[in-house]
Amino acid sequence: MRCLLILAHPRRDSLCGALFDACADGARQAGVECRELVLSETRFDPDVHAVSPEQQPLEPDLVRAQRDIAWAEHIIWVYPTWWGTFPALLTGFLDRALTPGFAFRHVTHDRWDKLLAGRTADLLTTMDTPPLIYRFAYRAPGRQALARATLGYCGLRTARVETFGPVVASDAAQRQRWIARARATGSRLKQGALSPAQRLGQQSLAWLAALRLQFYPMTWIAYSVGALAATAAHALAMAPYLLGYLVLLLLEAATVFLNEWFDFDSDRRNRNGGLFSGGSRVLVEQRLDRRSMRTGIGLALLGAGTALAALPLGVSILPSILLAGCPDREADQAADKRTLVVIVGKRGAVRLAMAASLCAPAIAALLALTRGDLATLLGWSAADGAVHAAWLWRRLGRYLRAEMPERIDGAIVRALTFMLWFCIPPLIALLLAT
Question: Which of 389, 18, 393, 341 is nearest to 176 (CA)?
């Protein structure tokens, strides 16, 4: 982790200075790469004289400060709480350093890009006011201003707030305990800036945003109308209804996740996005990384296929998808498309296709044997699918023993017809039962 520590007390030899040093020591002992910025030792005009801050030339110390902020993954701010907020030194630094174009960028009057997104922050502040009075009676104005109105506006998530006070009533022993707390705050960065609960909460909110639930009601209404129309003569069976909608929901989730993945570059450039366009921006704002989104796509697709009788069908589709990607591998690789076949190679794709062709009839047989209500639906799928799998294996085995040709239409046809054994027999069984 790269950590920048900023001391915003006008005096270096203060309690804030001691807390700053202890926190830095703890972070370095935890193996964190640290840089320090002591505002009292920097030289800059704290006042904005231009119409907008970015129009005022930056002093060399501010240029270095911006470089350090851009370099950091985590920023620790150490400052005293004066008159409920923070010193003029810190206010002036924020006015001059967190400029438009560096920390944020306005898109419209009510939308902006958070250019420091993906970073976290800790706030360590001393105060003479009892911390509980400050929080509940005064409603923590300084903390709200820094954590939410300033850092949050630029994309930094405040991970921890440590208050030390009341200082005016403290003795030497109390101050030593506070210094030990500051050292522990730095040491805990070895496990990351966020606690496990914070990481879980942050990830949960990011995935909730990525789902884009505003698009789901119409799908649910259409599905429900169809289900009610199909069962107009008798009561709606809730178990199949809910299971069917779960599959539909997961497919819709996979669709919006794929949209996030493939539209990342355009979403990043889009200045006209909104509630229904421009994506959820969870990738753009680094609330989720691309690896996590790729995992989410896979899990959503896998989940859609795990709905009991749908599971064999979902697995049976994989061979055709994998084999169809083999002839396109070179073109996809040249276009920087990270398909599964590009990642694992043609031989890897063939091995996965062979494994899936075995798994599909095996899963169908297992469900038919253990679930009496599925025996009729999946019995023929298991038997005929196993025969077809052996036929497909024979063709695919050639590609592992010799060079794969550029065109493999015959193998793709075998893979496409393989999935029919998991569609047609269950369909016939359902039609005969009605």
Answer: 18
